[in-house]
């Protein structure tokens, strides 16, 4: 079978000069000027041609794709359900019916406070039918859901094209009918007033920036909706929440490093919002409430955050008093207030912990069975509770739901993720290594592989992210068993730019220190080679979004190390995007990357690593790049331009594939099996590229 010829994108001269530097960008035409409506036929024809080329290149490997898909599917229960949780007189739960792509959402009345959830199906009411709602769409993602106090109304939203512009609707759960008009262009979950007569929702503008908090009263036309708060700063996004006590509504606005919070009584959604602390650059804080006090998590006194409290009637920052001081060794990542206690998420040496601080004076950590794990809160809808719902997993233990009972400090397992085709955690080894970076930093690396793996160099799958202070935690993946059971070593590089080792770890990988992130990833790979786990050319790497930028940068830096590269919706056109203020994510991103419009040093620094701008002639490893036509976060033209330019520069015969989801956005396909089909293609690409199929 002859190899198909790849598409060749037109080169149309385009250049600009800023800070005395001239940039040539002959593929700028791939940005449809009508975006977010993409109608330019030349653009669509090119993306379609790339998709056809992807299909032609993958066609000889469809048997492998089909085999992988069946493996992946075989690890997903055909029918599944969540552990029910209690809220306002009902049990709530989601379920996948046999073979369904989407969930049903259900509830059942609590008839006996001491009894477990009902087992009979007829006791449960379907409150939202995702499979039915998704029937008419190629893409369907449920956004926020919120049941009104008293349980009569359900406010919910959905995105049907991947643009992340959600349409909000209200359903009367007693009659099953839709109430009031649908609200377009919303984002996030709405929040109800105490009496269930009104709700607050977030509206996005034409550039997709969440900028208004709006009050809607049931039975009133949308034209009468009242703007409670509008954010004028184009670099700030707005959100709405409710305190754990449900007594206050919270309006939060901020960028990646600065925040500002206001509150108003939940029983008076038209009240004037009350400010906690005015924004000041670099000050991040969040708020909760209980028993007459507000609690605040703030980095004002320590970059790893501290916990403070203030009186309910005087919550301004001048009245904040210390509850838990900040620490160089312990990074506070979240907190929640329950009656009688604080629950605090901590990260120590890149591992998550949960601390309980009782008002009565006790202070203790939850104890878990494995040293290398990740843990976080589950569904905890009740403020006055005797137990805490947590999710626990490790690199070998599937997601396990526990209830922690405060009274006897007992962890009670409720459900462990079921792997229908089988999984033996004891068959795998988990290790934590430390890799030396070129500047002396020590990079944590999490590894998992089969215990029966013979000695020698093995194919290795290496992933990382390293941006926005978002960690890549050592959790479980049923999907990666398809690689582990084929003799792969799986590795996570906990590189700078994430916050695995605290806020300073994040700061060491952003702005003028951004290249630390890329160097760390390459240095981790070289360390794993030196330790004998693998060899150059036997490493598959994968990352998405900012992690896709990471892929582009490390390919430019050390192309000989990689045997296969997967870059999902990669942020590779950094310099151009950070100058495009018509995009909603540009001003809010400047604290992360720098502002190349006003800052000549930032311009030059971004130019020095921007993967698209730093492409040069040479040999490149096999690469699979993905895009979403409706993606509002990393616009489709970034990966399209990157592939178009790379085709003219690569001097090898390796695969360079671009697959654009024409009906989706940043997260790819929405159905659970459609997503597995895409993953099967990715794994097939890796296995064929490494000769490990």
Share of helical residues: 10-25%
- Mind telling me the C-alpha Rg? 25 Å
How many structural domains? 3
Strand % is 25-35%
* Shape type: globular
Largest beta-sheet details:
8 strands, mixed
Q: How many angstroms does the end-to-end distance come to?
A: 19 Å
Q: What is the topology, as strand order, of the major beta sheet?
A: 31-32-34-33-35-36-37-38
The CATH class of the largest domain is: Alpha Beta
SS class: alpha+beta
Residue stretches low in confidence (pLDDT < 50, at least 5 long) are none
Specify the number of helices: 12
CATH level-4 homologous superfamily of the largest domain: Alpha/Beta hydrolase fold, catalytic domain
According to CATH, the fold-level topology of the largest domain is Rossmann fold
What's the rounded overall pLDDT mean?
94
Structure description:
There is one protein chain. The chain is an alpha+beta fold and 693 residues long. The chain folds into 3 domains: 15-74 and 422-690, 3-Layer(aba) Sandwich (Rossmann fold); 79-136, no CATH class; 140-275, 7 Propeller (Methylamine Dehydrogenase, Chain H). Helix content is 18%, strand content 34%. The strands form 8 sheets. An 8-stranded mixed sheet has the order 31-32-34-33-35-36-37-38, sandwiched between helices. Strands 8-9-10-11-12-13-14 form a 7-stranded antiparallel sheet, with no helix packed on it. Helix 6 (515-530) crosses helix 7. The longest helix has 19 residues, at 672-690. The chain is globular and about 70 Å long. The protein starts with 14 loop residues before the first strand and ends with a helix.
């Amino acid at each position: 079978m002859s190899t198909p010829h790849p598409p060749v994108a037109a080169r149309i001269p385009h250049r600009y000069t800023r800070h005395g530097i001239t940039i040539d960008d002959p593929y700028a035409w791939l940005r449809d000027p009508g975006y977010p409506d993409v109608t330019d036929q030349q653009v669509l024809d090119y993306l379609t041609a790339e998709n056809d080329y992807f299909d032609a290149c993958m066609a000889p490997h469809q048997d492998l794709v089909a085999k992988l898909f069946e493996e992946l599917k075989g690890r997903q229960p055909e029918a599944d359900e969540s552990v029910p949780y209690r809220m306002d007189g009902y049990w709530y739960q989601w379920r996948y019916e046999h073979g369904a792509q989407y969930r049903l959402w259900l509830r059942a009345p609590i008839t006996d406070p001491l009894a477990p959830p009902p087992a009979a199906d007829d006791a449960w009411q379907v409150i939202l039918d995702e499979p039915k709602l998704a029937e008419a769409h190629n893409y369907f993602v449920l956004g926020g859901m919120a049941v009104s106090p008293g349980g009569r109304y359900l406010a919910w939203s959905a995105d049907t094209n991947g643009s992340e512009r959600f349409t909000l609707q209200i359903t009367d759960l007693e009659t099953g009918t839709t109430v009031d008009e649908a609200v377009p262009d919303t984002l996030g979950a709405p929040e109800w007033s105490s009496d269930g007569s009104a709700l607050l929702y977030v509206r996005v503008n034409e550039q997709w920036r969440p900028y208004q908090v709006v009050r809607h009263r049931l039975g009133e036309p949308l034209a009468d909706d009242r703007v409670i708060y509008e954010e004028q700063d184009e670099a700030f996004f707005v959100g709405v929440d409710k305190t754990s006590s449900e007594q206050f509504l919270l309006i939060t606005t901020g960028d990646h490093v600065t925040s500002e919070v206001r509150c108003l009584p939940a029983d008076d959604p038209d009240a004037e919002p009350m400010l906690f602390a005015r924004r000041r650059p670099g000050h991040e804080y969040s708020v909760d409430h209980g028993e007459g006090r507000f609690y605040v998590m703030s980095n004002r006194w320590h970059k790893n955050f501290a916990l403070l409290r203030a009186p309910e009637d005087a919550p301004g920052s001048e009245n904040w008093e210390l509850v838990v001081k900040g620490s160089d060794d312990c990074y506070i990542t979240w907190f929640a207030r329950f009656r009688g206690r604080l629950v605090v998420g901590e990260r120590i040496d890149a591992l998550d912990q949960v601390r309980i601080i009782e008002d009565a004076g006790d202070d203790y950590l939850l104890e878990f069975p494995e040293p290398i794990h990740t843990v976080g809160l589950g569904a905890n809808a009740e403020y006055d509770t005797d137990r805490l719902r947590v999710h626990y997993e490790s690199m070998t233990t599937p997601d396990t739901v526990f209830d922690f009972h405060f009274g006897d400090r007992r962890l009670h397992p409720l459900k462990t993720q079921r792997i229908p085709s089988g999984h033996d955690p004891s068959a795998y080894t988990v290790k934590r290594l430390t890799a030396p970076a070129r500047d002396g930093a020590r990079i944590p690396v999490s590894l998992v592989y089969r215990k029966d793996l013979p000695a020698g160099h093995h194919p290795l799958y290496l992933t990382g992210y390293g941006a926005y202070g978002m960690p890549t935690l050592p959790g479980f993946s049923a999907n990666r068993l398809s690689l582990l059971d084929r003799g792969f070593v799986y590795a996570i590089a906990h590189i700078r730019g994430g916050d695995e080792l605290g806020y300073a770890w994040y700061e060491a990988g952003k702005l003028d220190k951004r290249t630390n992130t890329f160097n760390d990833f390459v240095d981790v790979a070289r360390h794993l080679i030196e330790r004998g786990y693998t060899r150059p050319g036997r490493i598959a790497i994968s990352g998405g979004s900012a992690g896709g930028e990471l892929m582009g940068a490390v390919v430019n830096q050390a192309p000989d190390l990689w045997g296969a590269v997967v870059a999902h919706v990669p942020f590779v056109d950094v310099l151009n995007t950070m100058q495009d203020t018509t995009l909603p994510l540009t001003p809010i991103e400047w604290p992360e990357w720098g502002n190349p419009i006003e800052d000549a040093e930032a311009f030059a620094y971004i130019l020095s690593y921007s993967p698209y701008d730093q492409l040069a002639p040479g040999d490149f490893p096999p690469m699979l790049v993905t895009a979403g036509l409706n993606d509002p976060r990393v616009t489709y033209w970034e990966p399209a331009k990157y592939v178009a330019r790379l085709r003219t520069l690569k001097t090898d015969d390796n695969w360079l594939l671009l697959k654009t989801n024409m009906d989706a956005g940043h997260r790819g396909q929405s159905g659970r099996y459609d997503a597995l089909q895409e993953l099967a293609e990715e794994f097939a690409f890796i296995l064929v590229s490494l000769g490990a199929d």
